[in-house]
Protein: Carbonic anhydrase
Amino acid sequence: MPYRVLSALLRSNSVLPTHNVIYGGHRNCSSTTNNDGASDANAQPVAIPPIKRLAILTCMDARINPFKQLGLQEGDAHIIRNAGGMARDAIRSLIISQRLLGTREIAVYHHTGCGMVTFKSPGLRQLVKDSDPEAFAHQENAKLIDEINFLEFDDLEESVKSDVKFLKESPLLMKGTKVTGWIHYVETGKATRIV
Structure:
């Protein structure tokens, strides 16, 4: 069943106390910048923990704007980005988000047209080595790139399901964490929950 965005999901979450507040990400500032980068002298205080108690794990793709696409306001959720929005690559940030800042729900939010389906790790490793043959002739430098798993994938839906499964089974996250999986269709701007 298609969902316009996560707005219904977001509206259903409870609000954390706002005893610690920041303005636009900086304590004790009298002005902030809005999502367009412009200064907003009339900004309201924003809770340090995300108000919706939600962490959204998404791709670093410049076409993905979680605030706009998900109907979020500054301070509503943590937005955790990396190449492909991969859970294994984001676990450190998710632990901090949960254990120190109170999130209790994670939405894995992948998208169509993702660059992570366009390459394989061995080819990317070779591309890096070829960019500076002298540097990567040294075994310790070659080892640095050879040990990186770029976490590429072939099937978008399976990547979402795999990330949701990984997070649900991880002992590093809090028991009872709600984890959902979504695909954002860049062509239409709509999202579908698949897990």
About this structure: Residues 1-33 have pLDDT under 50 and may be disordered.
